Amino acid sequence: MAQLFLWSLRIFTTLLVLAAASLGLGYLFFSRSIPDYDAAYRVAGLQGPVEIVRDTSNVPHVFAGDERDVFYGLGFAHAQDRLWQMVMLRRTVQGRLAEVFGPGRVAEDELMRRLGLYSAAIASVEVQDSATSAALRAYAAGVNAWIRTVNAEALGRGAPEFFLFPPEIAPWQPQDSIAILKLMAWQATPHPAAEILRAQAALRLPENRLADLMPDFPPTGPATRPQEPPASVPTTGPIPLPDALPPGAPPPAETDRIGPEAPSGGASNAWAAAPARSAAGGSLLANDPHQGFTAPVLWYLARLELASGGVIGATVPGVPLVLAGRSARVGWGITTAWADDADIYIEELNPGNPTEYRTPRGWQPFRTERTILRVAEEAPVTLTLRFTENGPVLPGATLGVGRVTPPGHVAALAWTGTSPRDTTMSAGLALMRAGSVAEAIDAGERVVAPAQVLTLVDAERIALQLVGHLPSRDPGQAGEGRIPSLGWKDENRWRETLPYARNPRFLAPGSGVLGTTNNRLVDRPFPDHVSHLWGDSQRIQRLQRLLADREVHTRESFIAAQLDTVSYAARALLPLIARDLWFTSEAAAEGTPERRRQEALALLAAWNGEMNEHLPEPLIYATWMRRLQARLVQDEMGPLAEAFSRPDPLFLERVFRNVGGAGTWCDVTQSTAVETCTDLARIALDEALIEIDETYGGQLEALRWGDAHEAVHSHPVLGAAPFLKWIVNIRHSTSGGDNTLMMGRTGSRQAAPYANVAGPGYRGVYDFADPDSSVFVISTGQSGHPLSRHYDDLGELWRRGEYIPMTLDPDLARAGNVGITRLSPTN
């Protein structure tokens, strides 16, 4: 027995030593790719020496005697910290993910190939101005210099992920940077998904009920002055949809998941105060663009010393631009415009020759290209790409477009982002050099896609300017761009793009404040409407209140607004939905469903609508509204109800106010009884409390919204891998919700429906009374290396609502730096 114990101990000890040795060896290999920030390198392609000073938060400050060398240094710094992320962004837009990750990424690759974004980026290199071309070449040279350094000095392949996947890295090229901008534009374009979803819903609903489920957005305009909240529910009838789909369009299949969820084109906030509304006498600007959370986050903080002066703010690895930030003279914030810059067209195939499609001039051949899509460990796939006069032909699986395309037809996409003459990169560089609001507005004329709203400030003025090409449509276009239309009808086709002067602009308002939360900016009739679909109808109400509550603002008041978690939607909806449930029943016995409902209603009655992570009420409210939305739409929409799972305050208000007869949604059509809205509200609340009890248990008062509303920054590749996910994913308990200024967008089709899946990955507040007191932060860390101490160090500050200094002072950057990387030319 003793011998058995002894041998068992020896075997266990041996295994333990082997495991420790394996972990140590793995750490040794993986940690070699953590860059040494305090090092010197001799590299090719420089005009003179470059210094990359990493401040205490690992924000690089790039200094050089020649501006081209500054962009070289930025490329070098991006590659040091985010090489894997850059390569994955490039592979995504090139349609080359399947050759690394296998057949599961074929559909994604096919879409990118058919859109032709990378080909359009190659063509767009030729239309950049000379300064931008030089910057793109220098930036690419800087990226490639780090790749060569990694190979020459065996620095762990540049990122630990390259040990798990093919390590080959193609040299960076100028078109790669333009292509990443185009990928970002595609991800910020909600209208193709919205058109398809509307078409699917239109096959099930009459026009008046479609207007309930996908309502018009209220004309709120930019936040400029105190005002009465506008009617949040339009009372006009829906716009008719003539000629939208050919006869014989197939109904949605009942058994499959149908189409996209209700579209999201990204969210973002920006607001500004002129010197007259600032306590310190300088302009103020706050900006927090939102996107899906990843580890690392998309944004990367950097400062560049250009010939025109210092520029600092948020960059995207792979792109040599400060997309949101400030110089010494101008600050700019970006928000998604939600402009309708895309249309889906139904194209008829020639029955006698499927290589032709119908046009206003008769049958014409498709323009075609062949491309080979390589797949890891499988045979390559050969695709024939087809292009019409309206745009590229989409695969039927894209956004469910095949479900609204009749037999003998295909769907094509018209979108400004496919332009081969895209000067957005040149516009971004000109914006960084702008010396005034007027110059920044002029720079915006060259933006093609994505359409954005620039919030601008200088020493004297503030402004909002929508930038990006807007299509010129015929007033007779079927469906007004809200639903797929027939591509061969001349009145449905675009008439080039609108002149820049027609883009909405708000300059130096008398109120002294401006702001946007993706809300409807203008109330212009089609075709000057900008969009029928907008990203917000609730946050703007809260922003208007906060801007109006103070005569003068400070950096601190702008930070408080940026971190505000009060839900205007909750404050408006609860009195409406619960009005016949509050205080209307006798006290129920302990332990009964009625008692639990009364306890929940009592908590909600005393709640101020603050979506605080430490409170139970936000979880009760969010679960109730989600269950209520599902109850209202399930019987009418069937499987398509899944696309409308996220509660829509405009829809819920229409129903409970019975606008245009919308109260009929409360009646379950498949039952013999006639249910009222109060009945459904009570049933939904009981279901919500059962869900909460099954998931979290315990007393209602002990619930925490943050336990359900956890922000998970998942690694896009390794985030689901056993063991590794605990190393590469970053988790935070968070406040906020779908309709708060501090956005915390909840999930949809997943096991954790209240998880925080998207929000402000970057926050910046710029104070031009004392520019170096400006602050910013990102939601993870600067490094993309999971073993680096800078992988998640800024994330905890972000979670607590804290910031780091945003200074252009070289001495402050050097003070306590974590390293200075010195580059010198080989010659």
Residues in β-strands, percent: 15-25%
Low-confidence residue ranges: 226-262
Structural class: alpha+beta
Give the averaged pLDDT, no decimals: 91
Percent helix range: 25-40%
Please compute the radius of gyration using only Cα atoms. Answer: 28 Å
* Order of strands, widest sheet: 1-28-2-3-6-7-8-9-16-17-19
Q: What's the count of strands?
A: 28
Short descriptors:
827 residues, alpha+beta, eight-stranded antiparallel β-sheet, 28 strands, 19% strand
A few lines on this structure:
Helices cover 32% and strands 19% of the residues.
Could you describe the 3D structure shown?
The chain has 827 residues and is of the alpha+beta class. The chain is 32% helix and 19% strand. The chain has 22 helices and 28 strands. The strands form 5 sheets. Strands 1-28-2-3-6-7-8-9-16-17-19 form an 11-stranded mixed sheet. A hairpin with a 5-residue loop joins strand 2 (50-54) and strand 3 (60-64). The model is unreliable at 226-262 (pLDDT under 50).
Sequence-ordered SSE layout with sheet pairings:
Elements: H1 2-31, E1 40-43, E2 50-54, E3 60-64, H2 67-94, H3 98-101, H4 106-115, H5 117-124, H6 130-153, H7 174-187, H8 191-202, H9 207-213, E4 268-273, E5 284-292, E6 300-306, E7 309-316, E8 319-327, E9 331-336, E10 342-350, E11 353-359, E12 362-365, E13 367-375, E14 378-387, E15 409-415, H10 424-433, H11 437-443, E16 452-457, E17 462-467, E18 485-486, E19 505-507, E20 513-516, H12 539-548, H13 555-562, H14 568-577, H15 593-605, H16 617-637, H17 649-657, H18 677-695, H19 705-708, E21 710-713, H20 725-728, E22 730-733, E23 745-746, E24 756-760, E25 762-767, E26 775-778, H21 793-799, E27 804-805, H22 810-814, E28 819-825
Parallel strand pairs: 1-28, 3-6, 10-18
Antiparallel strand pairs: 2-3, 2-28, 4-5, 4-20, 5-24, 5-25, 6-7, 7-8, 8-9, 9-16, 10-11, 10-15, 11-12, 13-14, 16-17, 17-19, 21-22, 23-24, 25-26, 26-27
Helix pairs in contact: 2-6, 2-7, 5-7, 10-11, 14-17, 16-18
